[in-house]
Amino acid sequence: MFVVKYRKFEVRGFEGMNLYLRSMNIPETKLPRVVIVGGGFGGLRLASSLKKIQVQVVLIDRNNYHTFQPLLYQVASSGLEPDSIAFPIRKIFRNQINFEFRMTEVQEIISEKKTVLTSIGELKYDYLVIATGSQTGYFGLKNVEEKSMPMKTIPQALDLRSLILQNFEKAMLTKDVNESEKLLNFVVVGGGPTGVELAGALAEMKLHVLPADYPGLDSDRMNIHLLEAGTRLLPALSEVSSDSTLEFLSGLGVKVLLNTAVQDYDGELVKTNTNNDLISATVIWAAGVEGAMVKGIDGDVPLRNKRLTVDEFNRVKGYENVFAIGDVASQTNDERFTKGHPMVAQVAMQQGSLLAKNIKNILLQKPLKAFRYKDLGSMATIGRNKAVVELPFMKMQGILAWFVWMFVHLMALVGWRNRAVTLVNWMWSYFNYDRGVRLIIRPFKK
Amino acid sequence: MFVVKYRKFEVRGFEGMNLYLRSMNIPETKLPRVVIVGGGFGGLRLASSLKKIQVQVVLIDRNNYHTFQPLLYQVASSGLEPDSIAFPIRKIFRNQINFEFRMTEVQEIISEKKTVLTSIGELKYDYLVIATGSQTGYFGLKNVEEKSMPMKTIPQALDLRSLILQNFEKAMLTKDVNESEKLLNFVVVGGGPTGVELAGALAEMKLHVLPADYPGLDSDRMNIHLLEAGTRLLPALSEVSSDSTLEFLSGLGVKVLLNTAVQDYDGELVKTNTNNDLISATVIWAAGVEGAMVKGIDGDVPLRNKRLTVDEFNRVKGYENVFAIGDVASQTNDERFTKGHPMVAQVAMQQGSLLAKNIKNILLQKPLKAFRYKDLGSMATIGRNKAVVELPFMKMQGILAWFVWMFVHLMALVGWRNRAVTLVNWMWSYFNYDRGVRLIIRPFKK
Question: Which of A354, B11, B186, B208 is buried deepest, with most CB atoms within 10 A?
């Protein structure tokens, strides 16, 4: 059944496995097929860990690239090109012969038929892994969802980059003080790493880009507010780091409002639970994430935050051959994480690695290994020379932490081209106090 | 009348000049105002050459960045990030105190009132310079205009990049041979530098990217056709260069069809004036350019290709204070260029430089200097290691020409950040036979 034109799938073995529908033009094989939905940190790690295991791996994603989400805020704030934090998925798997990629969107899973319905055809699986990650959550605030800017994808970050720069351009034109205040007031909602890092980057634009590029604008009129509903910033980190972060951000001129939750936003007025309502044309919503669910998988899920409940082997509760890893999975057996693991890249990658081994164990009919998260630490950067880093063996703040942050993120990028281009941009920004790519390539229209 | 918050316009002098409407929030000044429409090669050169002349320079452009058009084809073929060939206009003029930028689109010129109407307000001028460049021309072929892909702006090049990659992805999915032939057949129309360079880049994708990224596709089924209505490629260069170019392209597998003009295209069938009709989902139109006219200036223009007829001082015929430079201007007094100068960056830049001097001469009531184009040479690259270069004192082809081409283009880019990022990408592509940014960030929809 081996189709000659495909130079892949020279691997044989596992005789007697079923053959597959070919509506997605994927070559037939006698190997069991693992279908992975989503090319994020978890999906990629799983797919590459399956390299030497005798399965056919099919990865599907709506984009043809992997997004390095931790640096999205730098795209939004004109610090990095979008192409530096994206990497073509096909390129990563060039040399993996048991791998196929299809760019498409999943419509529904028909688990009784072991089939994925997509916008371009059906796909049969033996094992299905849902690695769809997370999406912005709004806690039911419809107006906020409609009027605020999310920042979870590259097009969203580019829209935000355009909008920030369009606001500056518009503020140059108005003689109405209220109008210009509205345009230059930026409200970032959510005191997690995304909100903290973006607020810091906006503050640096105020300090270094605005006065030079827009001498006609009084940069004192630009205000950055960071709103956090809880009692401290970066709640996942220690109080020491929260305190440093607050100090660093205040030093940059960011107005941090703790214990402040957004209740409504009409595109102009940000209503909060305190008396402190704000006027702003731009609210950036980094306050909530929820699992990116897939239609058709609904055992005893969703549990919380729209995450799929999985067992210690990342098997979705109620399903035999369906797994979920990363942000979309909620694994509660670990006594340290009874509400599920944090939605971070490290969890997804570690679960991907282990699941590859467990799929091998299933095929070899060996016992499976339970997942146990090894926390490698957390970090966030707050503008030039400042960051907080917490590693298992030490905590640090300030310039040394900043270098650690840069090194870790540079190395975590996929591919040397992306690393080199990112390094050029960072060095440029560092020595010039500049953000080089403040381009409105496609203007944002609400 | 000097408004304090503007730290610009400390320059004084030229008493008695008129004051201006401030609908675009541009600070008042007693200096005469030069309004430049368009931030291309000509507009930028003019604006910076006016740095030390006692005028107020206002540059308007619909984008907030300058586009380095000669490398657009590399964006379209996934070789360079769009952000490498764009440069924020405000950044260029950071230190020029007599300069203002406004991002807007010109709607009409009211020359009797010395006013430019824009989408964001009115603008008075003393001297107006039209530097709007050129746009794609279709010789009245409506279907071609609707169905083919132009490549004159960064968004257009990005759309083309997406479409090429989407075609590959779609071709992976189809089992219909005709459909896949249509998707993998690329027709480039126009044998000038843009067409030649893009055809070469597509050929390199066929040779190096397609087999590695899409092992399921037979790369022999990808065909690149380059159609030229005239008898030779690069008609602006010598026959030696044309011959080398043809040889280089044929060596890369490009099917060059000379004496072949497109008559119609319905999105599928390319009808030509020969019997050789082609089936293709993707026609890239690089066959025609015409001046990008501005409403309201219509003396004895348009003459030819919608270019404004100007005298030897680049003054638009019939107007006292309106000038045009670059692609949009047709200057026929030079016996070498009785049909106007070639529409290239060098002409625009040289006209911009001279016009700055002539504006100074006007202000000082000195005689004006006539423009005389100094041809510094032409060049085009055709894939890896191959280019043709014609300088005033020598012609060359092959690898040395290729290095000259790279050096000249790298140096011509605005800003060190762009140069460094471009160099990283070129080195990456060279050593890896790769094109790093094959990303479908925003899918193209017809």
Answer: B186
Residue A46 belongs to a domain = yes
Q: Which ipTM did the prediction report?
A: 0.89
Q: Are residues A247 and A304 in the same domain?
A: no
Task: Print burial letters for B183-219: b (CB count within 10 Å at least 16), e (below 16).
Answer: bbbbbbbbbbbbbbbbbbbbbbbbbbbbbebbbbbeb
Q: How many CB atoms lie within 10 A of CB A253?
A: 16
Q: What is the mean pLDDT of residues B307-315?
A: 95
One domain, residues B307 and B226 = no
CATH of the domain at B307: 3.50.50.60
Q: Chain A contacts of B94, Cβ < 8 Å?
A: 212-213
Cβ within 8 Å, pair A94-B212: yes
- pLDDT of residue B16 exceeding 60: no
Interface with B, mutate which of A9, A11, A64, A221 (most B CBs under 10 A):
A64
From first CA to last CA, the distance across chain A in angstroms is 52
Question: For position A198, which CATH number holds?
Answer: 3.50.50.100
Ranges of H-type helices in B77-131: 89-92
Pair (A127, A187) in one structural domain:
no
Give the residue among A84, A287, A273, A132 at the shortest CA–CA distance from A198. A287
Residue A319 resides in a domain: yes
Q: pLDDT per residue over A147-184, tens digit each?
A: 999 999 999 999 999 999 999 999 988 889 899 999 99
Residues A217-241 have a mean pLDDT of 95
Pairing of strands B185-189, B223-227: parallel
Q: Do A279 and A180 share a structural domain?
A: yes
Q: What are phi and psi of B313, to 5 degrees?
A: -100, 10
CB contact under 8 A, A5 and B218: yes
Task: Report the number of distinct structural domains present in chain B.
Answer: 2
Facing residue for B27 by CB, picked from A213, A216, A425:
A216
Distance CA B327, CA B252 (A): 32
Distance from CA of B17 to the nearest CA of A (A): 22
Q: Least CA distance to A97: which residue of chain B? A: B215
What is d(CA A373, CA A334) in angstroms, rounded to the nearest whole number?
8
Average pLDDT over residues B218-235: 95
| Contact call for B25 and A420, based on CB within 8 A | no
pLDDT of A12 higher than 50: no
| Rounded mean pLDDT, B349-373 | 97
> Domain range spanning residue A221?
142-287
Query: Which of the two residues, A129 and A416, has the higher pLDDT score?
Result: A129
B33-37/B127-130 β-pairing: parallel
- How high is the pLDDT of residue B114? 94
* Residue recorded with tokens 């940014």: B437
From B363, B389, B419, give the residue that closes a domain.
Answer: B363
Query: Any residues with CB less than 8 A from the CB of B144 and at least 6 apart, and which?
Result: B138, B262, B264, B265, B283, B285
Entry pTM: 0.91
